[in-house]
TrEMBL record:
Organism ancestry: Bacteria, Pseudomonadati, Bacteroidota, Flavobacteriia, Flavobacteriales
Top-rank EC class of the record's enzyme: oxidoreductase
Annotated compartments: Cell envelope
Gene: nosZ
GO molecular function, one term: nitrous-oxide reductase activity
Name listed for the protein in its UniProt record: Sec-dependent nitrous-oxide reductase
Stretches of the chain forming a coiled coil according to its record: none
Taxonomic source organism: Christiangramia sediminis
GO cellular component: cell envelope
Superkingdom of this protein's organism: Bacteria
Length: 641
């Protein structure tokens, strides 16, 4: 145990040595010439478009940001798990239900891993999924509208980290717990963790047409921490792989406890086998409360349903479904190469990378060469499944992506570098410093059978001197590399928002073709929509007042409202009658708690207002929509009770 502490210290010390070295190097050489060739490669002329979309996780912002590559320009922040003032997401009556959970309304989360839907191992650009880490949830964003359209809570999970990765036909989006917890939750001493706390791996089916999510089954696993996961593909399609740490099942993870075992595991799950088992009536229903929230594009309204039970599967009852592959040094990233043969465990306390072979794994399973089953699950022998090791590749490997040309790119947090190596020969080809302390790397399609190996984006944890100082907090820093040649070439630094963990990239044309420009007013099925202008009106029902309002350049109808009293609850149901691309209107009401709305053409949104003061109060449009934007305004008269 002492040794492991010393080991970590030595890693940290070498880390600072490495980074000093790196910054020195960058100051030498012909920077001017380098800069101008790099500038040309990232330059997107005014009016031109980028080649790729990059969807970058917002980390503790709870959202997802959209960038263009190679320019590094930010196009949009898509609100997912957090309220978002710019669009009113989570504030308007229509979108509040999206943030509903079994713990109540949760307006802020931590989002980690976006993954784009696939068909036959290719990115299809229909949806992007992302996990809410803190209050476990999986969200689906529709890439036609860039709106979050579904969020499903994951019960029996805590720290929903080994999520949200999709199988090669988007049969499932998978969510694994980071923390093991009592399942079902109950009051018990924390130090009785061992053997009693459980981890859950949830397979959430995605309906082929609608994309509707449903927890098909939940695998109840030993009490490890499940860190990351990746699907098998090609020959390993039908399997899913999860890295684990804390296989000691310790209830306190001070370093001495967590790193006792020299090896933890990659758990290999044959989900096809379990799917068959549950389709034949296997598994047990367990009471579990979790929210399922769906946003409808036609009603422009979200509804939240509370589910009551979940189907659980005990892996010991499905022989041949789950195996444990010993993997050194607390593996973090769990990455499968495009062919589906190699499963890479990035042992974060190690200098080496471990590569397992799917073929060898199957061979060992078929010949029943096991090393016991300490947790009731067969454990394979390390040497039996090992394809090879990338030796002394760097310090503190975290994540690996692939370029589709036989190369892998692994990030090293401690030595702060991106290392390119050949998947077959396991030889290091190139290494480039990262400024500073890289977490994930993303190659568009790099987590599919068909990567687009032109650019790699590393997402760095520490920014320091890379940008002008902005007080104690700096945005995180991403770095764009050209990976089309043998050597990686650093092209660009750009700031990212929140703390990006993973990202997903896709060629722009796949998304552009399907992008929806407007919501059709004629198809607006909102309960409180005002489709005909003449229907704009004010209706009272006790002390509730419903204002059916329309907006079009550049006025509101009605724009003078009287008869409101202190103590009333006023609902402004506002329909945007524009039918032109990119002409939203805003609505701001003085003194309203959720003070503003932003409404897209053809859409209806609702703001509530409970006036507390007598007077005549203005409202106005917040989005500069025409030369008469400043005239887009109105008054409400509030009389005493
Ligand atoms: S984690 Cu953040 S750097 Cu959530 Cu994928 Cu490894
Ligand atoms: Cu509508 Cu400004």
């Amino acid at each position: 145990m002492k040794n492991s502490i010393l080991y970590i210290f030595s890693l940290i010390i070498s880390a600072s040595f490495f980074s000093c070295n790196n910054s020195e190097n960058s100051k030498n050489g012909d920077r001017g010439a380098l800069a101008s060739s790099a500038a040309e490669k990232v330059y997107v002329a005014p009016g031109e478009h980028d080649d790729f979309y990059a969807f970058i996780s917002g980390g503790y912002s709870g959202n997802l940001t959209v960038y263009g590559l190679p320019s590094g320009r930010m196009f949009k922040e898509i609100p997912v798990f957090s309220q978002f003032p710019t669009s009113g997401y989570g504030y308007s009556e229509e979108t509040k239900p999206m943030l509903n959970t079994s713990h109540g309304f949760i307006p802020w989360d931590d989002s980690h891993h976006p993954d784009i839907s696939q068909t036959e191992g290719k990115l299809d650009g229909r949806w992007i999924f992302i996990n809410g880490n803190n209050t476990p949830r999986i969200a689906k964003i529709d890439l036609k509208t860039f709106e979050t359209t579904e969020i499903i809570e994951v019960p029996n999970s805590a720290g929903n980290h080994s999520s949200s990765f999709v199988t090669e036909n988007t049969e499932y989006v998978v969510a694994g717990t980071r923390f093991s917890v009592p399942v079902p939750q109950q009051d018990m001493p924390i130090n009785e963790y061992k053997g009693k706390f459980k981890g859950t791996l949830s397979f959430i089916s995605v309906a082929p047409e609608t994309g509707r999510m449903n927890i098909k089954f939940q695998l109840i696993m030993p009490g490890f921490d499940y860190d990351l996961s990746h699907p098998g593909r090609g020959k390993s399609h039908g399997w899913f792989f999860f890295t684990t740490y804390n296989t000691e099942e310790a209830n306190t993870l001070l370093e001495v406890n967590a790193s006792q075992n020299d090896k933890d595991f990659i758990a290999a799950v044959n989900w096809k086998k379990i799917e068959e088992y549950v389709n034949n009536g296997g598994g047990k229903m367990m009471p579990a409360e979790y929210a399922h929230n769906v946003y409808d594009d036609h009603t422009h309204t979200a509804t939240s349903t509370m589910k009551k039970e979940v189907l659980t599967v005990d892996p010991t009852e499905v022989p041949g479904a789950v195996f444990l592959l010993p993997t050194p040094k607390s593996p973090h990233g769990c990455d499968v190469d495009p062919s589906g043969e190699y499963i890479i465990g990035n042992g974060k306390l190690s200098a080496d990378l471990t590569i397992h072979s799917f073929t060898k794994m199957i061979d060992a399973i078929e010949n029943k060469r096991f090393d016991g089953d300490a947790y009731g699950i067969p454990i394979l022998k390390f040497e039996d499944v090992l394809a090879g090791t990338v030796k002394q590749a760097g310090l503190g490997p975290l994540h690996t992506e692939f370029d589709g040309k036989g190369n892998a790119y692994t990030t090293f947090f401690i030595s702060s570098e991106l290392v390119k190596w050949n998947v077959e020969t396991q030889e290091v080809i190139d290494r480039q410093p990262n400024y500073y302390s890289v977490g994930h790397v993303m190659i568009p399609g790099g987590n599919s059978a068909h990567p687009f190996g032109k650019y790699a984006v590393s997402m760095n944890k520490i920014t320091k001197d890379r940008y002008l100082p902005t007080g104690p907090e700096l945005e995180h820093s991403a770095q764009l590399f050209d990976i089309s040649g043998d050597k990686m070439e650093l092209l660009l630094d750009f700031p990212t928002h929140g703390e990006p963990h993973y990202a997903a990239g896709i060629p722009a044309e796949i998304i552009k073709e399907n992008s929806q420009k407007i919501y059709k007013l004629a198809e607006n099925k909102h309960e409180y929509a005002t489709i005909a202008n003449g229907d704009a009106r004010v209706e009272r029902d006790g002390n509730e007042v419903h204002v059916y309002m329309t907006m079009i350049r550049s006025h509101f109808t009605p724009d003078n409202i009287e008869g409101i009293k202190v103590g009333d609850k006023v609902y402004f149901h506002i329909t945007n009658h524009e039918q032109d691309f990119d002409v939203p209107h805003g609505f701001a009401m003085i003194g309203a708690n959720n003070a503003e709305l932003l409404i897209m053409p053809g859409q209806t949104k609702t703001l509530t207002w409970e006036p507390k003061k007598v007077g005549v109060w203005p409202f106005y449009c917040t989005d500069f929509c025409s030369a008469l934007h400043q005239e887009m305004q109105g008054y409400i008269r509030v009389s005493p009770k």
